Amino acid sequence: VAEEQVASKAYFVREGVFDGVDVNLFTHVSSNFGMSWGQAGGNALWSVQFRFTGETAHSAGAPWRGRSALDAAMLLAQAWEYKREHLEPASRSHYIIVDGGDQPNVVPQRSNIWFYFRERDYEGTKAMYDAAVKMAEGAALMTGTEIDTIMTVGAAWGRHFSKPVAEATYANIQRVGLPEWSEADQTLARALQRELGQEEEGLADSIPELRGPVDLSRSLGGGSDDIGDVSWNMPTVTLRYPSNIPGGPGHNWANGIAMATPIAHKGGVAGAKVQAMTLMDLLLEPEIVEEAWTYFNEVQTAEQEYIPFITPADEPAIWLNAEIMQRWRPQMREFYYDPEQFDTYLEQLGIEYPTVKPQTISQDADEAGGRPGG
């Protein structure tokens, strides 16, 4: 189950995987170092599939004898669009139709529509889920179909990070510092930013400040991560490390370019150094762990109870990517890196670094401050 489908860590928490753990040091790739404590930005998330069942019939010969499960899914989607107008600015919601039937000339007997509901906290996210359940019931009533399953695929609480551990980690970020980027690294970064129409700032050259808590009442929401569930069960931090190029939109081809380059390697090594140094601090300075648990018990959870979105009956969606991996993994094997034969992955692929798109004459002139004369 991919990390981006937030379908694993809440189950790990439920099954006691983290029982007895003192501190959790998590990481996430970024275009710079980043560390924060307290309530983080972004949203909680509930990932849910609504599955309807109806009755087949010939779509032209006897459509009146069918009951379309696809109609139910589409009515649920349309109802949610009317609801969207009345959501708060921080709310996020998106959906896809996973299954809309077999072929057009058969009234669909089954359908599956997959929603992500996101809000800043548990209460707001659950309210979105509860509203969608009522809409699904109405859609089934209007179409004469039935709700087969309302399945939780994944979930993520909003994140809250430990102040003592964040401060210790940030001190190590400052000690390690950013990687030394080569001119080749900067050339690739600026070329990608130019391709995306972003400011050609190149790679990160300064470390941002340690960030404190976000005021959720003023937050406009954003992405989600199921490390949030872990963070509400033990002292946790997320180290963002500089292995990517600034300016990408996220979940896009542009965000994957750096992964096979020295940019990612240098950033990963720098992040690993920070993690190792922080781990040593926790082992050699047990007072940091004690302070972390004091913060966790007396500040973070003093007034907030962790109530998981998943129930004891929910099962992790280990089937979710099975078909995709069965199709693509055999084709990926020929591209696995062979460190015994090649010094770098780019060498194995036969790619000269950096390979960038040539600029046109007009682009060169624009950067020089004018256009070529005639």
Query: Rg, please?
Result: 25 Å
* CATH-defined topology of the largest domain: Aminopeptidase
Overall number of strands: 8
Spans where pLDDT lies below 50 across 5 or more residues: none
Give the overall form.
globular
Query: Helix amount, in percent?
Result: 25-40%
Please write the string of helix (H) and strand (E) elements: HEEEHEEHEEHHHEHHHHH
SSE topology sketch:
Layout: H1 9-14, E1 24-30, E2 38-39, E3 44-53, H2 69-84, E4 92-99, E5 110-119, H3 122-143, E6 146-156, E7 160-161, H4 163-176, H5 183-195, H6 227-231, E8 236-242, H7 262-284, H8 286-300, H9 322-332, H10 345-349, H11 361-368
Parallel strand pairs: 1-8
Antiparallel strand pairs: 2-7, 3-5, 3-6, 4-5
Helix pairs in contact: 2-3, 4-7, 4-8, 7-8
Report what the structure shows.
The structure is a single chain. The chain is α+β, with helices and mostly antiparallel strands. The protein has three domains: 161 residues, Zn peptidases (Aminopeptidase, 3-Layer(aba) Sandwich); 112 residues, 2-Layer Sandwich (Alpha-Beta Plaits); 30 residues, no CATH class. 37% of the residues lie in helices and 15% in strands. The chain is globular, with a radius of gyration of 25 Å. It contains eleven helices and eight strands. The strands form three sheets. The protein has a four-stranded antiparallel sheet with strand order 4-5-3-6. A two-stranded parallel sheet has the order 1-8. Helix 2 packs across helix 3, helix 4 packs across helix 7 and helix 4 packs across helix 8.
